Structure formats: C-alpha cells, structure tokens
C-alpha cells in the first residue's frame, strides 16, 4: 500500500496566513472558536487544522492564541501553556469571565471573525 506524504502547498500556506491574520485580530477580552476561524478563513470543516496551526504558530500569533477556545467555550488549547489554568489566568487578566472552571462565557465574550473581515491588502504587506 502506498503511503501518502503531506506536502505543504501554496493553498496550505495561504490558509495558514488567513488563520494567523484572523487570530492576530481577536481583541483583548474576547474569544473565538477554532471552527469560526476556519469558516472565516474559507474552510468550514478545518477546525482541527486551525488548532494544529496554532500549536505551530509564529510568536506574535502564539502570544494571543489563548483567545481561541472550542465551540463550547472550553479551554481545549490550555495544555499549550502547561495547564489550562494558565490559559484561564491570561483570559481573566483581559476581563474574560467563566461559567465553569475552564469554560468561558461565550455569550458575553464571543468575537465573530465574519463580522470583522480580513483586509486582504493588509495581509499582503
């Protein structure tokens, strides 16, 4: 059986750049979800890819990646900081409130990337 090897393509790079551009725009005190980022980046069923990209993000994106949660508001990326409590502390410093120990109040703090479209000229610079 032939093995498939994933090769990075221009399309992959373009998706990554769109994801990173969206994450950079998440305002302090707000959160969004992996799925909303994927949809805004043009690939609705790529929430897991967004998570993978954030795990390998450049420093400026990694610095704000704590603002990305799962569709239920849970801090699923929290282990990237050693423990979800660290991610929670970062969010609390920005004024994000929680409805459970590691679940943000999405109703109060959700930021919709689709409501704040990417400036494609800004991405090119």
Topology:
Elements: H1 10-24, E1 32-33, H2 34-40, H3 47-55, H4 59-62, E2 68-69, H5 84-93, E3 98-100, E4 103-104, H6 106-109, H7 120-124
Parallel strand pairs: 1-2
Antiparallel strand pairs: 3-4
Short summary:
By secondary structure, this protein is mainly alpha-helical.
How would you describe the overall organization of this protein?
The protein is mainly α and 125 residues long. 43% of the residues lie in helices and 7% in strands. The chain has 7 helices and 4 strands; from the N terminus they run H-E-H-H-H-E-H-E-E-H-H. It has helices spanning 10-24, 34-40, 47-55, 59-62, 84-93, 106-109, 120-124; strands at residues 32-33, 68-69, 98-100, 103-104. Helix 2 (34-40) crosses helix 3. It starts with 9 loop residues before the first helix and ends with a helix. Residues 1-10 and 120-125 have low confidence and may be disordered.
Beta-strand segment tally: 4
Percent of sequence in beta strands: 5-15%
Helix percent reads 40-55%
Subunit arrangement of the protein: single chain
Strand order of the largest sheet: 1-2
Mean pLDDT metric: 87
Series of secondary-structure elements, N-terminal to C-terminal? HEHHHEHEEHH
The rounded distance between the terminal residues' Cα atoms is 44 Å
* Total count of helical runs of at least 4 residues: 7
Radius of gyration: 15 Å
Largest sheet at a glance?
A: 2 strands, parallel
Based on CA inertia axes, which overall geometry fits? globular
Low-pLDDT ranges: 1-10, 120-125
Structural class determined from secondary elements: mainly alpha
